[in-house]
Design goal:
Rossmann fold, 41% helix, 346 residues, alpha/beta, 14% strand, single chain, 12 strands
């Protein structure tokens, strides 16, 4: 079985490629930068030479058509995930236009199934107390979530037209080996560097990238013709619970204040505007506050295809340990996971 993967050098994509290869399938990657393949796959124990590579962008029709030609299935994981206001145009181009091109090209090429990687955030602000597979799409006032909601609408339209599209909804993801140190991993790192003393109340569904990768690999092996929606394994965490688990796994005090999310939105909006002119990344982000305010838990009966969510403690510990080993955190910042005795991990 030959599977085309877009976004295969990203966090979700690289872990998914590893899970697909473990399942015995062959992989063809559509990548903009072929040098990124080694950096993304080698840490996961994969030989970059074991995958086919097509060079191109998901917004380039000809490149997409070359990538999906002759494949059995497609995993569309390419996406720009960022709350950085400077990347809005890039998000619209990649997340929306890329999804339109990939899903349409995959369908014409006869790929079956076609797995579209959405996000649970595409349904925020949530219409109910929980999010289900049949929940309506959100109309978010945040650039990243808005782009994913529109892309999700494209995927749902293909399902309505009886195309073999399967939609997956990852939660916020952490775990080791993040090739580009994405937004979620960076927020964890910033918390341990003391750059996030103020947190919005509220919460978000959180999961492990390895669990979501296993889900995506399993969905690609589904019988032909299915049109389903599945959630990445996750647990809903309040921000207070998140920080408390981080304290437990690192042995650090991590002083933090938790404020109501809604009053924090104006501050987030201000930093969103300032970020467009400030060359360095500002840790306080409107998108993060907005998500904590509007997120809802995933319904307990929603399908994760039978894949259980590993503990948040394990996920956070493995992420911090990797950040330290990769040189992104000092031993003091990693606390006990960096070899600092607990009595000194402050």
């Amino acid at each position: 079985m030959l599977i085309c993967v877009t976004g295969g050098t990203g966090f979700v994509g690289a872990h998914s490629v590893a899970a697909i290869v473990r399942s015995g399938a062959r992989v063809r990657l559509l990548v903009r930068n072929p040098s990124a393949v080694e950096r993304a796959l080698c840490p996961l124990g994969l030989d970059p030479g074991a995958v086919d590579v097509v060079v191109g962008d998901v917004t380039d029709r000809r490149a997409v058509e070359r990538a999906v030609d002759g494949v059995d299935a497609v995993l569309h994981a390419a996406s720009v995930y960022s709350f950085d206001s400077r990347r809005r145009a890039e998000m619209r181009r990649t997340n929306v236009r890329g999804t339109q091109l990939v899903l349409a090209s995959a369908q014409r090429a006869g790929a079956n199934p076609i797995v579209h990687v959405s996000t649970v955030g595409a349904m925020f602000p949530a219409a109910g107390r929980v999010v289900r597979a049949d929940s309506p799409l959100g109309v978010p006032r945040e650039a990243y979530l808005a782009s994913k909601s529109v892309a999700e609408a494209v995927a749902r339209l293909h399902q309505e037209e009886e195309a073999p599209v399967v939609i997956a909804y990852p939660p916020a993801l952490l775990g080791p080996h993040d090739p580009h140190l994405g937004d979620q991993t960076t927020r964890l790192r910033n918390a341990l560097r003391g750059l996030l003393p103020l947190w919005p109340r509220g919460g978000f569904p959180l999961g492990d990238v390895r669990d979501t990768a296993d889900l995506l690999a399993a969905l690609l092996a589904k019988p032909a013709g299915v049109r389903e929606r599945h959630f990445g394994p996750s647990r809903y965490m309040t921000t207070q619970q998140y920080v408390e688990v981080l304290r437990q796994v690192t042995g650090r005090a991590l002083p933090a204040a938790f404020l109501p999310a809604r009053p924090m939105l104006p501050l987030g909006m201000l930093t969103d505007v300032l970020q467009r002119f400030w060359p360095w990344r500002i840790p306080a982000e409107y998108g993060a506050v907005y998500t904590c305010l509007h997120a809802a838990p995933v319904d307990a009966h929603a399908s994760t295809y039978g894949i259980p969510a590993r503990s948040i403690s394990e996920t956070l510990a493995d992420t911090v340990r990797w950040l330290h080993e990769a040189g992104h955190l000092s031993s003091r910042q990693a606390g006990v996971l960096g070899g600092i005795p607990e009595r000194f991990a402050v």
